[in-house]
Request: fold
Amino acid sequence: MVSSEPFRDADQSKPAAPGLSVLVEPHGEAVVLNVAGEIDLATAPQLGDSINAAMEQRPETLVVDLSQVDFLASAGMAVLIGCHQQAKGNLRFRIVATGSATFRPMELTGMTDEISIYPTRDEALAAD
Amino acid sequence: MNLGHQNLDNLPAEDLHFRVPAVAGRLAGLRRELAQWAARVGLSDEDAEALVLASYEAMANSVEHAYRDQTQGLLDLRGEVDEEAGRVIITVTDYGQWQPPRPSNGLRGRGLPLIQGLTATSTITPTSEGTTVTMFWPLARDR
Reply:
């Protein structure tokens, strides 16, 4: 790739990053945020805005489903922890994550000890 | 320090070097380049994923902390294959001053622990001219 061009700038003509999409799905007294894409320094604020907007609907339970997220940077974890702290005493804040792209980074930073993380959406919704 | 001119003509074919403005919007593209590079030089899937995330965190640190008082700075991302040692070396260099971490409120400061968790060996070298993060991963045996 770089062999013919030993030094170069990253190509700006390439398509923009896939970014992040958040779908809000009501589930009875709960709200599920179906998150897909990449959570990094650039997209983490968008995730925070989506979670805050969902919290304003005052659901009993808010599930952030990261099953379709294929990259999670610490900037995204910071947003999730901030929302978790904000949810305390107001609503149940749960995360669905499994696999190396999302669960492993949260495990490595000790975040899995602080927040309830479930392997599937059904388990997150069913837990008391 | 001379950011304008460097003799990089002798860069081996397998190596990678990007110099970009240290802004968040540039990092996703670099992440994809790194993923392709890691697959091409022969890392296990697990190590390739760790390399991409740890390198991203190092670059994100430069974007967030190195140039807080300036409008723009640069960062260098380098990947080298060390065949003899059977490993790859990633370095991320910026030319600013990292601000001391703010008192932890649990929100920030996960980037460096994450890097340490994703690499067997990593060093962070602050100098008067900037900061370099160096990280190593083993080449896959069956590549």
